[in-house]
């Protein structure tokens, strides 16, 4: 699970990352990354709409994405002072964890380069 300092909580922060951040699309997710000079912590946010599925499916996808984000945080794949928003596409509902992990990792490396 992501610690409190590593989570986006305000709607304005989500909006800023999605509108002004760099975008990278994968098979199951779209990743938005915005570098801010304000905070030292890397913050993650997740958007999982009803198009993905019912409540149980959405929460399962969200938990998987949180686990992927925690692993990328531990591996230092994202620089400090960065906000990341991961939007799940409907295909994420049936994707196994490994495919989601590879999709997000590939997107983060593309945006970072």
Automatic annotation (TrEMBL):
InterPro entries given in the database record: Ribosomal_Su5_D2-typ_SF, Ribsml_uS5_D2-typ_fold_subgr, RNase_P, RNase_P_CS
NCBIfam families found in the cross-reference section: rnpA (TIGR00188)
Name used for this protein in its record: Ribonuclease P protein component
Keyword Iron: no
Gene source species: Microbacterium aurantiacum
Family: Belongs to the RnpA family.
Assembly, per entry: Consists of a catalytic RNA component (M1 or rnpB) and a protein subunit.
Function: RNaseP catalyzes the removal of the 5'-leader sequence from pre-tRNA to produce the mature 5'-terminus. It can also cleave other RNA substrates such as 4.5S RNA. The protein component plays an auxiliary but essential role in vivo by binding to the 5'-leader sequence and broadening the substrate specificity of the ribozyme.
Catalytic reaction equation(s): Endonucleolytic cleavage of RNA, removing 5'-extranucleotides from tRNA precursor
Entry annotated with the keyword Chloroplast: no
Pfam families: Ribonuclease_P
